[in-house]
C-alpha cells in the first residue's frame, strides 16, 4: 500500500523523469500547446500516450497513466504538474473528460486553479464523433451530434434510445449513463467504473464479430453523460416480445442462438451476470445478447469465481448462489438463461407470462422469484411439459436450473446438446450458431 506522502513524492519524481527522460520531440510538442494554445487532436493524445508508455519504464505510466494524456497536457499548460497526484488519487483518467466545475471540485479545491483548468480543457476535447469504435470522444455537448428518435428502454445504469448519428449518417442505439450534477459524487464514481467496464467488454466482443451479440460502434463523454453507441437498433426486447406473443415456428432457433452466444462469452472468459428477457434484443428475426454493464471479465484474473454482495441483479432471474451472496461463477449465467428458456418455452406453448407469475404466487413459498420457490418451479415445468411436444427442451431446462451450481450443465454442454437435437427438431440452430468461432 503506497501512502499519500509517498504518492506525492513519487509524483514529483515522475515529473522530474518526464522533463529529463522524454525525447526532445515530445517535449517540444508539449511546448507548442503551451505557447500557441492549439487544440489537442485525438491522434495527438494517442501519440503522447504511446511515447509515455515506451519511455517511462512503468513509472510515468503509474502516475500519469497512458490513459491520461489530456491531464498531462493541461497541467503542463497551467504550470501545475504537481497536481497529478490528486487526479491519481481520484482514479481519474481521460475517460472523465470533459469536466464541469462540479466534478472538478472533487479533485481541485482552489477556485482559480479550477477556472484555469476548465479554460484550457476546451483545447483537448473532440470536435466531432469519429466512426472509429476504438476512439472514445470527449464532447462539450453530446446531444448536438445526435437526433433522438425514441426511447428504447432504461435500466439500473442508463437510458437507451434510438438515435441518428448526424455526422456519420447512421442509426445507432445510444446508452446514456449519468454523471456530473445529475447524480451524487459517490454514484458518479460507480457510473464511471460501470461505463469503463462495459465499454471494454463490448470492444473485446465486437472485435470478434460474434453472432447474437451487439456491436459497439462508438463512445463518448460529455459533462452530463457517458455514452455508448451500438448496433443494430432492436425492434424490441424479448420481454416485450413474449408479452405481445408474435411467435412463429422459425423462432425455435433462438434456443440455439442464445446458448451459442453464452458459450462464446464464456469462451472469452466473460460472465454476463444479468441475463434476462429485457437484456435480449429482437432484431428482425434474430436475437442478440446485450447490456454488459455489470459483466465480469476474468481474462487477467485467477478465475471466474466472485463472492460477496452482488453489485446489482434482477432477483427474478438470479441464481440461488447469487441471491445468497455465495461464491458463484459462470454457472450463474446458465441458471439465468434457464429462467429465460422457461419463459420462452411457456409462451411458445400458449401460456401468458403473467400465468407463470400467478402460478408461483399461489404455490410453494408463494414467491414469484424462481430461485426462491423450487416447488412452484417444478410443478410449473410439469404443467408446460404436458402441453409441449419438444421433450428435449424440458430436459435442458431442468439441467440449467439445478439448485447446486456444480450440477448444472455448462454453456458449451448446452450448445452441444442442442446440436445433437437439431436434426430431430428442425430449426433449433440458426446462422453460424453451430460453428466453433
Automatic annotation (TrEMBL):
Gene Ontology CC terms, in alphabetical order: nucleus
Statement: the UniProt record of this protein carries the keyword Transcription regulation: no
Gene Ontology biological process terms from the UniProt entry: mitotic DNA damage checkpoint signaling
Transmembrane parts of this sequence: none
Residue ranges of domain Protein kinase in the record: 146-425
Keyword Membrane: no
Family of this protein: Belongs to the protein kinase superfamily.
Protein name, per record: Kinase-like domain-containing protein
Annotated source species: Lineolata rhizophorae
Amino acid at each position: 500500500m503506497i501512502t499519500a506522502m509517498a504518492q506525492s513524492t513519487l509524483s514529483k519524481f515522475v515529473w522530474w523523469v518526464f522533463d529529463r527522460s522524454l525525447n526532445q520531440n515530445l517535449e517540444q510538442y508539449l511546448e507548442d500547446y503551451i505557447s500557441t494554445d492549439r487544440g489537442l487532436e485525438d491522434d495527438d493524445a494517442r501519440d503522447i500516450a504511446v511515447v509515455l508508455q515506451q519511455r517511462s519504464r512503468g513509472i510515468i505510466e503509474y502516475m500519469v497513466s497512458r490513459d491520461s494524456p489530456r491531464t498531462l497536457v493541461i497541467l503542463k499548460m497551467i504550470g501545475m504538474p504537481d497536481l497529478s497526484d490528486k487526479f491519481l488519487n481520484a482514479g481519474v483518467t481521460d475517460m472523465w473528460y470533459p469536466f464541469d466545475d462540479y466534478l472538478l471540485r472533487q479533485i481541485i479545491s482552489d477556485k482559480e486553479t479550477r477556472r484555469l483548468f476548465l479554460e484550457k480543457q476546451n483545447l483537448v476535447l473532440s470536435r466531432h464523433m469519429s466512426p472509429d469504435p476504438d476512439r472514445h470522444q470527449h464532447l462539450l455537448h453530446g446531444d448536438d451530434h445526435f437526433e433522438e428518435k425514441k426511447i428504447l428502454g432504461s435500466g439500473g445504469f442508463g437510458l437507451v434510445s434510438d438515435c441518428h448519428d448526424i455526422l456519420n449518417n447512421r442509426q445507432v442505439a445510444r446508452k446514456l449513463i449519468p454523471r456530473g450534477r445529475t447524480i451524487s459524487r459517490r454514484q458518479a464514481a460507480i457510473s464511471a467504473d460501470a461505463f469503463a467496464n462495459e465499454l471494454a467488454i463490448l470492444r473485446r466482443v465486437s472485435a470478434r464479430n460474434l453472432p447474437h451479440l451487439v456491436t459497439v460502434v462508438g463512445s463518448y463523454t460529455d459533462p452530463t453523460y457517458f455514452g455508448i453507441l451500438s448496433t443494430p437498433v432492436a425492434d424490441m426486447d424479448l420481454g416485450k416480445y413474449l408479452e405481445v406473443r408474435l411467435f412463429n415456428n422459425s423462432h425455435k432457433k433462438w434456443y440455439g442462438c442464445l446458448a451459442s452466444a453464452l458459450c462464446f462469452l464464456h469462451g472469452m472468459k466473460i460472465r454476463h451476470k444479468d441475463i434476462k428477457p429485457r437484456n435480449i434484443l429482437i432484431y428482425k428475426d434474430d436475437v442478440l445478447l446485450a447490456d454488459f454493464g455489470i459483466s465480469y471479465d476474468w481474462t487477467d484474473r485467477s478465475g471466474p469465481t466472485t463472492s460477496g454482495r452482488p453489485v446489482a441483479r434482477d432477483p427474478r432471474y438470479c441464481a440461488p448462489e447469487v441471491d445468497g451472496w455465495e461464491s458463484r461463477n459462470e454457472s450463474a449465467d446458465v441458471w439465468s438463461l434457464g429462467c429465460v428458456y422457461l419463459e420462452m418455452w411457456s409462451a411458445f406453448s400458449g401460456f401468458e407470462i403473467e400465468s407463470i407469475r400467478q402460478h408461483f404466487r399461489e404455490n410453494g413459498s408463494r414467491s414469484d422469484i424462481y430461485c426462491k420457490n423450487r416447488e412452484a418451479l417444478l410443478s410449473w415445468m410439469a404443467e408446460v411439459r404436458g402441453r409441449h411436444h419438444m421433450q428435449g427442451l424440458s430436459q435442458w431446462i431442468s439441467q440449467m436450473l439445478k439448485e447446486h451450481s456444480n450440477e448444472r450443465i455448462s454453456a458449451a454442454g448446452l450448445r452441444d446438446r442442442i446440436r445433437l437435437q437439431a436434426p430431430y427438431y428442425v430449426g433449433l440452430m440458426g446462422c453460424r450458431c453451430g460453428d466453433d468461432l
